[in-house]
Every structure is written in C-alpha cells, then in structure tokens.
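Blinded run. Sample ID left blank on purpose so nobody reads anything into the name before looking at the predicted structure. Input follows.
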Amino acid sequence: MLNIALFGPPGAGKGTQSALLMEKYNLSYIATGDILRQEIAKNSKLGQEAQKIISEGGLVSDEIIVQIIEEKIKTDYSYAGFLFDGFPRTYIQAYILDGLLSKMHTSLNALINLQVDRDKAINRLLERAKTSGRSDDNKKVILNRLKEYDEKTLPVLNFYNDLGIHKAIDGNGSIKQVFSGIQKEVEKALSKSQMNIVLFGYPGAGRATQARKLAKEYGLVYLATGDMLTAELKTKSKLSKEIEPHIKEGTLVPDEIIVRLIEKHIQENPKAKGFIFKGFPRTLVQAYILDGLLRKQGTKVSCIINIEVPTLELVKRLDTRGKTKNKMPYDGSTQTIVKRLEMHEKKTLPVLDYYEKTVKIYHVDGVGSITDVYQRVWVPAQETYRNIH
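Blinded prediction complete.
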C-alpha cells in the first residue's frame, strides 16, 4: 500500500499535484475538509457530531477526525493507497496518523513537501482570486494563512525528518517539472517497500514447502537457517570453520554466527523484493535481532504466517519423514520428536507473543494437501502484498 502526505503552503499547487498523483498511483484522496463534508452529507453519527460542533462555531476535534479517517481507510478497498492533504496539520496529528496507520498494519511511505517562494505563492493565490470566487483569496487573508502555516504546520516536518521520510521538492517550476520531482521520490519510496514474511509452525508443519512456493510466486529471497548453514559449510569460508564444530558436536550454532550469516545474505541481495524467513527467529532474542537487521535496511517484518497442525498429526509426519532421506536428527524416535516439539513450544511460541503487538499475525490451518494449505497461506500473503504495494 502506498501512503503519501502532501505538504506545502497555500499556493504551492497541492490540489493540482494531488490530482496527478491519484491518477498515476490509484490513490484515494483524504482531505479532512472533504471527508467531514461527506460524513455530514451522509448524516452519519460522526457527521452529526461534526455538524453540531461546526454550527456552534467550534473546531472539530482530532478524536472525530481520526475516527472518520480510520473508517475511510478500513472500508476503501478499491485503491492502492491513500493521499493525505491537510492532515496531519499539527505535531499531535502526526502522532495520531502514525498510530492509526500502524493499527492498520501499514505506514506513511513519504511526506512530500512542496517548497515555494513566498512571493510566488502569494502571486499564484492572487491570480486564482480572479476566477475562483473564494472569499479567502485576498492578500490580507492569504498572509494570515501563510503565517498560520509557518507556525502550526512546519513543526510537523520535524516529526517526519526524524523518521527519514520527509522529501522536499522544489515547487516553483511548471506543473510537469514539479510532478516529475514528486514522482522520483515516490518511486524511491516504493523501491524500499519490501515484503518480509516470517513463516511459523511446529516442526512437521510444512513450512519449508510453503515458504519456497511463496518465495517463487512473489519473487522473495528464501532464508532458512538450516539451508544457509549447510551451504556455508560447503564454501570452506572462515565462517564455515566456526560453524563446523557445532555441527559435528550436535550443539546449537550461536546466535552471533546465525546473525552474521543472515546479515550476509541480506546484504548480498540489495535489490530483493523481500525475504521469507523459515527457522528464524526461533527465540525471543532472535526476534529482537531480526528487527534490528531489517531496520538497518530501512525495512521491517511485514507479517507472520503461523501454520497450525494438531500435535498427533505432527508426530505422524515427523515419524514418516524419519524413514526417508530427508529425515532430521530429531526424527529418530517418538521420544526425540516429542522433545523437539516441546522445545519449540517453550522457546518459539513467546516470539509470537512478541510480534502480536506490532505485526499482523495470520493463523492458517496446515492440515491437508500441499495445494490446499498453499491456498490458505496465499490469502494472507496476498493481503500483505497489497498493503505494501
């Protein structure tokens, strides 16, 4: 999902550029004044509250505005994202929008700030006054509006500077020149929109099979700790020599080595559309580590897909696998299988609790054929893909 906030003083040309952005990227336009009028026209409960406040000469509260915006975002599925104009208008509203989008499991990709010389902005508005018929298009009101913009709205830029998504554009040129500058920044923002999926599930849930199918369909890089360790051992690298003793002795490879391995693979794929992780994070500590690794790349975990399979079915699957060439070390007996499942429950399930607060978690029934399960896994993956793009 592409979400943009368009900034600029009166006379910056936000209306013109908004129309071009909506057409180019299929965005839904969210301007607080417009949606307030829409709710009032619909005579909705929120619209009635807003109408009462306005008729009494008051300002509609942030609480009502955010509820109206949230309702629009939740119900408007026909667009690829949202274009915010006139919101956030204050520092407080910036926090509100950030929290609201986070609740919807998305975020603002960029704040585009159209910078226009003061004299040019005034002249544009005075020219518009000749045909607009707007009562606020006179020099005295224009100067007051520009002053209010400086005092109340410019501090919002500090909020987005800290997030690293404030993009300043020269708004003094022609409509075509300004839009070209905006488009370059939007394309840069889109290129950073990676889809990173963590596939969860007990041993025997079929994660590897489903992860590979998802990676192929969405062009993601598949990262499985076991596969990476095996591949690294074959390279005879310096890192492989650190891994080898742990494999021979049957001990767990330390997080320090696993992290270096994952970081290496992420860095080797700078243009990746995203990653799908299987077998990592396996512990709460590793969850913190993965968040840190992705944050360094300017991205984050997009969603968790947890494949759920009944315990008895897991034991049957692992016992059957133990009789094939694909068997794992713990597939040898029912006792070792149960021990491995208990270890997963003790160490890995807390990772789900950790992500519950920040990432959307999808629980998928893992019983059935590979095709049946993939059809279920595909639904949350597709929803995540839409939210990102």
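Unblinding after everyone has recorded impressions. The first helix runs from residue 14 to 25.
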